[in-house]
Automatic annotation (TrEMBL):
Transmembrane residue ranges: none
Gene3D superfamilies documented for this protein: 1.20.1050.10, Glutaredoxin (3.40.30.10)
Protein name from the UniProt record: Glutathione S-transferase
Residue ranges of every copy of the GST C-terminal domain listed in the record: 88-205
Amino acid sequence: MLTLYTFPTPNGHKASILLEELGLSYKVHKLDLMAGEHKKPDYLAISPIGKIPAVVEELPGGVKRKLFGSGAILLHFAERTGRLMPQGVEARADALSWLMLGISDLGPTAVDMFRFSVRAPEKIPYAIDLFKGELIRCYDAMEGRLAEREYLADEYSIADIACFPFIAVAAVANAALLERYPNIKRWHDTLSARPAVQRGMAVPE
Ligand SMILES: N[C@@H](CCC(=O)N[C@@H](CS)C(=O)NCC(=O)O)C(=O)O
């Protein structure tokens, strides 16, 4: 049995889209971040940093395999199933670069932009301009890439799944965004039409 610990945020949606795409059966444990459930000892034993998403897999013999962080979850299940990751060395190297853009550039930058432009009690123009500029670098890189090909890697892969939820949430917050990036829009619309993406974006209920 596989349990996904999550909350309706882009990082959580990466994991649920992945599990839906792979058709794996899983149980959803929604953590109440507002109530601080992610900081309780039981959950810190799964995700020592106290963030969602995390996955626990119960293996034969009572062994529990724990994974935390969207990047680890995406890579682990892609490697284990041999799916959602191009197989050739060159294509895989390419896919890894775009996977990591999603995990270590787009995601953290989008979160910091939200923190400084929406959450911060005091608006600091330097921080807002910095993260806006960093987000534009991510969007520009994706736009250039998607002008050349349908997906971020040679085929639909975990690189797309790593980036999609942050683009989807930005498109809702800023309706004009996708008008400025026609290739990201085309890619966003293609992914949005995938039934597994739709199911994953609806987790947890
Ligand atoms: N590097 C992690 C980041 C995960 C993350 O930031 N999760 C957020 C929700 S989107 C969270 O759990 N925040 C709670 C907190 O920071 O206390 C990943 O890629 O999964």
